[in-house]
Design brief:
The complex is a heterodimer of chains A (180) and B (122). With 180 residues, chain A is mainly α. Helix content of chain A is 71%, strand content 3%. A two-stranded antiparallel ribbon of chain A has the order 1-2. In chain A, α2 (24-34) packs across α3, α2 (24-34) runs antiparallel to α8 and α4 (66-90) crosses α9. The radius of gyration of chain A is 18 Å and the shape is globular. Chain B is mostly helical and 122 residues long. Chain B is built from 4 helices and 2 strands, in the order αααβαβ. A two-stranded antiparallel ribbon of chain B has the order 1-2. The radius of gyration of chain B is 45 Å and the shape is elongated. Classes of the chains: A mainly alpha (180), B mainly alpha (122).
Amino acid sequence: MTGAFTGGHRMQQSELRIKLEEHHRDAFGWALSCCGWDRTMTEDVLHSSYLKVLDGRAVFSGRSSFKTWLFAVIRRTASEQRRRQMLRRFLPVTLLTGQKDSSMADAESDLLRSESSARLVAALKVLPPRQRELLHLVFYQNLTIRAAAETLGVSLGTARTHYERGKERLRDLLAEEYTK
Amino acid sequence: MTESPEERHLRSLFRELRREVDASVSAFEVRATQPVRTGHRRLVMVTATAAVVMAAVMVARVVRDDHNPEFGLDLAATTWVAPTDFLLDTPGSDLLRSLPEIGMPAYTSQSVTGPGAVDTSS
C-alpha cells in the first residue's frame, strides 16, 4: 500500500492512519485557521488532506517532522479549495451541479462560546494571511518560530518579521475591540 | 526564550480559544477513498486529446493556406482599381489619349476610337 518515507523506511497506511489520528486535533485547529473559521470547509479540507496522505498523493519524505509536513499539506489543500470556491463564485457551476457553497453561517457560533475567543478570531481575520498563520502556529499550536517558518515554507528571518508585525497588529486590533 | 507579558497574554487567549475548539472537534474519520472513475477519466482524456489534435489540424491548415498561392491571391498578377477611379475620368480626356487624323473633326468620339486613331495611353 502507498505510504511515506520516514527514517529510511516506508510508512504503511496503518502507520499513517495512527499518525493522522494522533495529530487530528492540531490539524483541525490549523485547518480552521486556513479556512477562515468556516467549519464546513474545514472538514472538507481536512478530509481531502487525509486522503492525499493515505493514497500517496502527498508523500512524507522525512525531511521535517510529520506534523510540519501534514500542516503544509493542509495549507495547500485549503488554498486549492479557496481557489475552487472563487471559481464557483464567478462561474455558475452551482447551477449545473446543484452543489451549494459551504456557508459561514453558524459555523463560528458552533465553535466559539466565549466573547474573548470570538473577539480574537475577529481580530485574526483582519490580519494578513501570513501574519495570521504564523501567530496561529506559534500561539495555538505551540510551535517554535523556526518550525512555523518550515511549515509555511519561508525563511526564519521572514517568519520573525511576520511574527513581530502580526503581534503588534493583533494587540492594536484587540485594544480597539475592547474600547468599542 | 522568555516571553514578554504581551506574549503571555496572547498565549492565554489562544489557549482559551483552543479549549473551545477542542471541545467541538469532529471525530477522526477518513471515509474510504472514492473509487477512481477510470472510465470517466479515460473519456475525458480521449475528448481532450481529440480537441487538441483538431485544433492542431486547423492551425496547420490556416498556416498552409497562407503560404500556398493556390488558395490565395497572386498579388503580382492582379491589378487593383480603386472604386473612385472614375472620378479621374474627366470629360474629353479621351482626346488627350489619342492622335486625331488630319482632315477629320477632332471633337467626335468616333474619330478618337476610329480605326485610324493611335492610342497613346499605353
